[in-house]
Amino acid sequence: MTRKPKRKPPPSPEPYPDHPSPSPAQCLAVRDALLAFHGFPEEFAPFRRLRLGLDSSPEDKDGPPSTPPTVLDGLVTTLLSQNTTDAISRRAFAALKSAFPTWDQVVDEEGKRLEDAIRCGGLAATKAARIRAMLRGVRERRGNICLEYLRDLSVDEVKTELSRFKGIGPKTEARKPHVQIPLAPYQVIVALKKR
Q: HhH-GPD domain location, by residue (predicted)?
């Protein structure tokens, strides 16, 4: 039985050329009205500058210099990146920082706001519990929520410190990808070796 090839519609600048409304002009008018009312979202400003070719660095030259990411920012970003794409985990981290400007606010919040903030990254309940537990543990042991002291430790000491946190395993500690082989290909490899 042969299949008929699907006919591709002719290219069009409009996403839905068969629909009379909304037109591209109407979409742009709504976008402009929303931007005028709400302003441009700050978390997207670096991407906009890069897309427009205005700036090749993520630092905002018009405003105050951006602060470099902290060790804790990197660790939370890594936790959020588990079981999702980099783009989605960046979006989850931006939503988290927008909802909670300080880490103390994350620890002190008792409701579901943290889960709601990172929901776009998937596994929100698990990740929220791990982030909150990690931040509480740091605050209890160190007196404040900061991991910058890790920069002064040896690699083995850093691994020991990070392994205390649930959800931070050898792959996260090493920041190196581990190759996981699914069971079926593994069984084929074992069978081939026995020949």
A: 76-138
